[in-house]
Amino acid sequence: MENPLDSPQQGQATMDSCASESSADSTLSKNAIKREKNAKERRLFREKKEQVPAETASRVERQQAVDDDNMDPAQYLKNRLRSLASAKASGLNPYPHKFPVSMPITEFIEKYQNLSIGEHLESTEISLAGRIMNKRASSSKLFFYDLYGDGMKIQVMADARHSNMEGSEFPRFHSRVVKRGDIIGVVGFPGKSRKGELSIFPKLFTVLAPCLHMLPRRKIVAGSDEAPLSKENEKEATDSVWTPGKSRNPEAYSLRDQETRYRQRYLDLMLNPEVQNIFKTRARIISYYRNFLDNLGFTEVETPTMNMIPGGAAARPFETHHNDLDRKLYLRASPELHLKKLIVGGLNRVYEIGKQFRNEGMDLTHIPEFTMCEFYMAYADYNDLMEVTEQLLSGMVKKLTGSLRIKYHANGLDNEPIDIDFTPPFRRIDLISELEKMSNLSIPKDLTTEAANKYLLDACQRFDVKCPPPHTATRLLDKLVGYFLEETCIHPTFIINHPEVMSPLAKWHRSETGLTERFELFVNKRELCNAYTELNDPEVQRRRFAEQMKDRQLGDDEAMVLDETFCTALEYGLPPTAGLGMGIDRLAMLLTDSQNVKEVLLFPAMRPLEEIDVQVINY
Description:
It is a single chain. This protein is 39% helix and 20% strand. The protein has helices at 8-70, 73-89, 105-112, 169-177, 231-240, 258-263, 265-271, 273-295, 336-345, 382-401, 431-439, 450-462, 473-484, 538-553, 564-571, 584-591; strands at 126-139, 142-149, 152-159, 183-192, 198-209, 299-300, 306-307, 319-322, 327-331, 349-357, 369-378, 405-408, 418-421, 427-430, 493-496, 518-523, 526-533, 577-583. Helix 8 (273-295) crosses helix 16 (584-591). The longest helix has 63 residues, at 8-70.
């Protein structure tokens, strides 16, 4: 085929044609560039014009947040009630009946925490719900929320580009309607922000229950877009997470006032996330206790809370009145006598976890209504129970804390915490011999005589040991033990072999006259449990009850009364048995570094206030 360029005329024509086309393209290209430049200038002008109201809206929103925080709480409540009434008047229901949640926040975090920075899963739709504890605006089209649920937090990144709201509805809703403390539901997709914060990007945003009261502002959590997670605050965030057995610092809480924390526990749980972990730890303690006994073949039972006779413990009972029977009843101080009746009936291993009631004073470690676990083992004695107790507590501490040693602020939060070691075997000290050794006393063998009583009273006066009347031998000896022995019991320590006058339900010691086979476990100077080989001779039991009645006549209203129904049960034969009672509240105090028993009770008994302003909360 002939090449056109082989002809000089044809080649020249072709080159002229190409030059003409090149010139036209050059002219076209210049025009296109000019048009593009003009379009870009117009676009920048529009964006700059639009940016002014966006920045203004953002400033307005930030000012709104400042105004909310500085507002009088009563006025804040009035404003929210007015807004609520307006919503209802317009036909809206501010309290929806239901919101379908596809997964809890804990599962969301576990499932999507490994997303890459900036990664979005826009094809995945998830619905979450929780309470807003922090709110901040980047612009009128972008709002950040900290959403809490199940003790965990994620970020809600409300972006107008993803929302189903139109026009001015988005900034109005997020600026005016949604407030800190509100319970909300969101439907959107998971992702991570450019700063690496795991977030949900909502398409649908619904207020499920508005919080009408002003809340204290919660501390910013390291790792949010408001406080990026650097290496330094990543370590701080990790170290600040409380776990059982570690020391804690309630002074660092967002809500610190004890009266408010205990009387309005819902606020405490809401504002101080660590508190939720404390009560979850308490639940784990009870669960471990129950599983431990179940694995040993015990049967959990329930016994009456109201009884016709106050018995089972040396304590002042609460009284009530049964209208139909028209007689006085007593709230139980202990389920002991009922549980031993079950052993008589053939249930050889039984336990009960429940509330006990003792009409006594309140202090940092005592409360009138408390939780105790009592269990009884047929064909066992107090030596067996000491081994069981060591296994129970060392295993529990190891399971919950990962160690056999815990930190505890025994001397207050202002001082360094101490170490308490639960490594078995626990220390054992004999009550009488150790008391005589430490006090240089010679305790009388027979403690039922007037001479013995006078000797103990003189000893208390000599050492300035306070013992309010009545001055019975039991009370005087108990005060001396507290002064000399209990103060030495930092690590778990068994004080064993109590005198008979102190132990009306315990069996006499098989080799030491006047003593019983009983022990009390002390940790951090506080009694944690009480146990003994059970007295199963009905005649001796009646005699012990009679001796207790003498103390009652002297004014000791904590002494036991005769329970003839229990003595009758013993006449049918109680096998050799050992029983133990342990306070769950004090155990929870130890494992949560709590110095006040009210820290581990969701709704503790409180002294009444003369006036409570339900409208205004003082933080």
